[in-house]
Amino acid sequence: METEILYADPEGFDEAVGVAVQKLNEGEVVALPTETVYGLGANALDENAVAKVFEVKERPSFDPLIIHIATREQIYEVCDISPELDVVVQQLMEAFWPGPFTMVLPKKDIIPDIVTSGQATVAVRMSEHPVMRAICKELGKPIAAPSANRFGRISPTSAHAVEKELGGRIPLIIDGGACNAGLESTIVRVELGEKRPELHLLRSGPVVKEEMQKIGKVIRPKKPRNVEEAPGQLDSHYAPATPLYIFEKPEDFVPDPALSYGLLSYRGAEKDGYIELHDWAVIEELSPGKGKLPEAAVRLFFALRQLDESGVDVIVAETVAETAIGVAINDRLRRASTKIPSV
Ligand code: TXA
Ligand code: MG
Question: For ligand 1, is residue 104 a contact (CB within 6 Å)?
């Protein structure tokens, strides 16, 4: 299959949106830009189209999809929200929508089981990317869109990365530029709770705990009881093809002289302990100089791809401060790693 790429720059915007909507209406899958990562979109109400998403991504059917909507009102078409819960949902929408924030809520029957892997809840978000919003609005139906990578691999943050992941498997990629959040949305399951609303954190992301705490109690499930409870919380995920190691402290790294190593460095600083340890074949810096976590988040998946394609035998990754969006960066690094340290 030939994969067409359409640029949604100011000149091509209307055409790109129009062709994407046409393809989605025809039951096709289309790669679409969002502010977090590129998504592989399908009309969420069309079971056959959603089935194609699973097939193209080689995604297991037990891993449910996020649906994207264009307006806040649309949430009531897809979710079954009690008046009590609505008070919390409205506060959350006010605070974080449009944006990189996904709510898991009771679903309405209109959402096919294939989208939610048979669960009674659905994950929903409203993206702030102008291209995604325009396509959602013109389609007038929710768009089911997981990240546009093959299952378990690094999420794409550019149209070029999507082409590498899924080129030849899908008919159309809409190029809306590089993603400006760089990590997948924060996911919470919203519940009423006894005293305060409960936000069960299923995936850390750009909307951080400190912000959410103003609205409800943020609860981090220790270990998911089962795969249905947190299907995306697989220990191994977001992984490059090259083995990736993280260490508790730099001195734990003992290189094998027969292998070549690439370093994923936070800020390229010697004081972080890794740069001087070894004669690295390649070094990718996430936020050169001072080290800023949001910049590191934006560059993370891009840098991982660069290292993966550099031909090194092993990638060593520094973790970052476990604060704000650093929590989500470290989460992705642990899941990308070959061995998860017992921390
Ligand atoms: O930023 C994002 O969220 C991107 C962009 C494209 O919107 N999408 C994304 O989708 O990351 P995906 O499919 O790669 O990850 C969605 C995760 C699933 O792995 C699953 O764990 C969780 O969302 N999820 C979906 N529905 C759920 C549900 N009903 N209950 C619990 N978790 C759910
Ligand atoms: Mg994904």
Answer: yes
Q: Is 134 in the pocket of ligand 1 (CB under 6 A)?
A: no
State the number of CA atoms in the 13 A half-sphere of 17 facing the CB. 17
Q: Which atom of ligand 1 is nearest to the CA of 123?
A: 26
Closest ligand to residue 152's CA: 2
Looking at every residue in the chain, the average pLDDT score rounds to 94
Side-chain half-sphere exposure of 108, counting CA atoms within 13 A: 15
User: pLDDT tens digit string along 300-337?
Assistant: 999 999 999 999 999 999 999 999 999 999 999 999 99
Task: Give the side-chain half-sphere CA count within 13 A for 29.
Answer: 28
pLDDT tens per residue across span 83-100: 999 999 999 999 999 999
- What would the two tokens of residue 227 be? 């795969």
- Find the Cα–Cα–Cα–Cα dihedral 13, 15, 20, 21, rounded to 10°: 100
184 Cα: distance to centroid of ligand 1 (angstroms): 8
* Beta strands across the sheet bearing 143-144: 4-7, 172-175, 30-32, 39-43, 143-144, 66-68, 121-125, 101-106, 186-191, 198-203, 217-219
Residue type, 241: A
